[in-house]
Amino acid sequence: MSVHLDRSKITEDPGHHTAAGRAAEAVAGRSLYADARARFFANKAAMVSVIVLLAVLAFALFGSVLAVWDNETIDWDLIGVTAEHGAPSLANGHYFGVDELGRDLFARTVQGTTVSLMVGVVGAAIAVIVGTIYGAISGYAGGRIDNLLMRIVDILQAIPYMFVLILLLVVFGRSIAMLFVGIGLISWLDMARIVRGQTLSLKNKEFIEAAKTTGVPGLIIVFRHIVPNLIGITMVYATLLIPNMILAESFISFLGLGVQEPNTSWGALISEGASTLQYGMYWQLGFPLFFFVVTLFSFFFIGDGLRDALDPKER
Amino acid sequence: MLFYIIRRLAIALPTLTLLIVFSFLLMHMAPGGPFTAERELPPQVLANIEAKYGLDQPIYMQMLEYIYGLVAHFDFGPSFQYKDRAVNEIIATGFPVTLTYGTLSFIVAVLLGGLLGITAAIHRNSWLDYFAVGLSIGAQVLPNFVMGPILVLIFVLWLNLLPGGGWNGGQWQNLVLPVIALSTSYMASITRLTRSSMLEVLHSDFIRTARAKGLPKRVIIFKHALKPALLPLFSYLGPIFVSMITGSVVIDYYFSTGGIGIAFVNSALNRDYAVMMGVTILMGGLTILFNLLVDLAYAWIDPKIRY
Q1: Which residues of B touch A251 (CB under 8 A)?
Q2: Which single residue of A114, A189, B239, B274 could bond A60 by disulfide (Cβ 3.0 to 4.6 Å)?
Q3: What DSSP string describes B160-189?
Q4: Which strand (E) or helix (H) includes residue B75?
């Protein structure tokens, strides 16, 4: 990952330098990324989403500092009367109320938010790394190798992965680590396809031809010249992948097959909240659901914003 | 065309085989045999039981036998938890239920979604268009496991109009909430897709020509615009089918409809690998079959596709 990021800086930098250099001469030129940044900042929905997302992130990171209770301690005063007296209150320190067992919902929501965000980011990171390398190699190699690699993706995509993922979780034990592995296994397929398409259009460009004629080996061309040029599109799809990973994890946890107690995630919290609706404990569904919905919205808006910013002809 | 069919089959069959082999191997990697009970059996008894179920054979023989049973008699083998029930019976009780509300949801999603998308594109910037856009954005964050509780809260707990779950032989009251919960997010993405593809078609040159020569709007839309606008929807049906099959697990879990999904969840909690594998293979097979049909239909409808 770090290797990719470093190279993205390298590709970005010459743009800034030339822009700065030309500015001294006459009209200020704008690099592709400066242009994209300006367009992104002008997108109100995306900017609001960035702020909201930062707030959610701050909640996940520093929420436990504010919490009076921790996520496992049971408030014995409220047990058995959670429906009557467990509602959110500032007086007893349960800002979001308590769950059916008398545990503090604020602390549990903080914990669920952390887990869900982590699953989303890790899943998307695996997708970016594996998908980019796989797709770039497939597209650049072309011919029989490309055919074979893409048929493998076809085959994997035709399988209803959720069933296989649950099978994996049951066989290898339901842990967060296994959840990461399982979600990572399927997340890269779309990314590989997209990256391959981009690579196909890149590989006939003049600068690749120049590299080839000067005798640069194929793998180095892929990593030094093709992959850096894919950063833009990878970023966009990574942003759109994060909410999908979160959705997948929540789906499994909703069924009680994902993260296990005392750990929790948005899916597990929503599931618990859904089961206590009939007692009128609306807060138990409301708070986790609010964070879930707001975060997914933000990711989708940021992803759309990034896509519009990097690819103006889409609009 | 024949060549295309053969090539498509050449992908579909290995996919199914791979799925079967993979789940079979996975099942055998699981810790503990199916007859490892809390009270340990005498070794001789265990050996006899394993011989009865063919578990003393080498693994590739077991796998070949399983595949043979599957292909020849559609037999998924015995369940490991319910000693008296075969996986077939468990599937046979749940599958009709899943099929009923699944088919309904699929039809609702495709018809309503397509209709809404097309109408929204024709009447661009009307209140209907805004509604369609709002819905397609909103439903992205309202997957079935969120829609379920919200629907129950409104229609069961507050309005007291519908039952909160159960199947009851497929009465319409029991079908309404599952179908809405399962179809909404897919309907929204279909709306989004058809709206944007219809808009693209309406802005293309041949539609402008048709308008320029004075064709009535009705003829332009129904005769020229509709078919190319609906084509992208076709390639989207496969993925939607997969997500809906997956989503049915949540419906069965939350609404207690008794479909195949609840058998899957329970078997996952009980570690009943035989049932899990049976359901996975069945759902995988259905998905592969559906994708095959969609692809063939697509190749038949779209003259531009190369095969």
Answers
A1: 143, 145, 246, 250
A2: A114
A3: --S-SS--GGG-HHHHHHHHHHHHHHHHHH
A4: none
